[in-house]
């Protein structure tokens, strides 16, 4: 009996080989209190395209991802508003150590690749030096289909883009509050970014946000 079951399982594995499981990466919990006022951060935020050659700390990475899309409410609501609370975005990050997806529900990252994909992003972004020189390039993508049932196709696109603006601004303001340099980058070839990052076809890249230590 046991032998039969084992054979069955083996047969199934041949037909459906197990998918490689993306490695979960823990990040420190976010700070919920800062030392600088919102007004000061609004004054301080500036697009900066040159960075010091230093990696971000785990604390900074966790804080930036949380600012973009972190959960701040027991019902799962997030730092950035979302039409119908349907959350049409995903946030990724490319660093020297690999390519990661943020999982808001557990405030963790899931490693998608161990490769440094920043050069491929730089090429896709018309060779903008800010993309090559940043310690981390955050990538905000939209999944329009999450909104389509409620809002229809046209409105879904508009709402996803508005939501991306909210998430991006949160990240940029958080970077400023941490004394980091950052710039929002919208000029890139969508298809080339999608290919470079092996994104699922339904994910449309909207923003690249290079972040690094200030020079
Ligand atoms: C939708 C959008 C797309 C942008 N794309 C780029 C870009 O591809 N490369 C870049 O260096 N800056 C880009 N920027 C940044 C602007 O150049 C910058 O915000 C503007 O010069 C004002 O400067 P400030 O951000 O310091 O206030 C973009 C900004 C926005 C809002």
What is the topology?
Blueprint: H1 2-15, E1 23-26, H2 38-44, H3 58-69, E2 89-95, E3 98-103, E4 108-113, H4 118-124, H5 129-133, E5 136-142, H6 145-177, E6 180-182, H7 190-197, E7 204-213
Helix pairs in contact: 3-6, 4-7
Description:
There is one protein chain. With 215 residues, this protein is of the alpha+beta class. It has one domain: 3-Layer(aba) Sandwich (NADH Oxidase), CATH 3.40.109.10. The chain has helices at residues 2-15, 38-44, 58-69, 118-124, 129-133, 145-177, 190-197, and strands spanning 23-26, 89-95, 98-103, 108-113, 136-142, 180-182, 204-213. Strands 1-4-3-2-5-7-6 form a seven-stranded antiparallel β-sheet, with helices on both faces. It is globular and about 45 Å long. 38% of the residues are buried. Residues 46-47, 49, 128, 130, 183-187 line the site of flavin mononucleotide (FMN).
CATH class: Alpha Beta
CATH topology: NADH Oxidase
Enumerate how many helices there are, as a single number.
Answer: 7
- In round numbers, the mean pLDDT is 93
CATH superfamily: NADH Oxidase
- Ligand roster: flavin mononucleotide
What's the gist of this structure?
By secondary structure, the chain is of the alpha+beta class. The chain has one domain: NADH Oxidase, CATH 3.40.109.10.
Core attributes:
215 residues, binds flavin mononucleotide, 20% strand, globular, alpha+beta, disordered N terminus, 7 strands, seven-stranded antiparallel sheet, NADH Oxidase
């Amino acid at each position: 009996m046991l032998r039969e079951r084992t054979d069955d399982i083996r047969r199934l594995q041949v037909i459906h080989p197990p998918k490689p499981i993306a490695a979960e990466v823990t990040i420190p919990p976010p700070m919920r209190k800062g030392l600088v006022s919102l007004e000061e951060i609004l004054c301080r935020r500036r697009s900066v395209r040159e960075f010091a050659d230093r990696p971000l700390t785990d604390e900074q990475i966790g804080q930036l991802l949380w600012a973009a899309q972190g959960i701040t409410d027991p019902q799962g609501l997030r730092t950035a508003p979302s039409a119908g609370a349907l959350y049409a975005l995903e946030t990724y990050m490319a660093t020297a150590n690999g390519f990661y997806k943020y999982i808001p529900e557990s405030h963790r990252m899931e490693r998608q690749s161990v490769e440094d994909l920043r050069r491929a992003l730089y090429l896709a972004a018309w060779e903008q030096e800010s993309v090559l020189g940043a310690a981390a390039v955050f990538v905000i993508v939209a999944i329009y289909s999450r909104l389509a049932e409620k809002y229809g196709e046209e409105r879904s696109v508009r709402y996803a883009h508005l939501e991306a603006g909210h998430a991006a601004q949160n990240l940029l303001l958080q970077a400023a509050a941490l004394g980091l340099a950052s710039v929002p980058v919208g000029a890139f070839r969508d298809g080339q970014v999608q290919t470079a990052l092996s994104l699922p076809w339904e994910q449309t890249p909207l923003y690249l946000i290079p972040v690094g230590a200030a020079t």
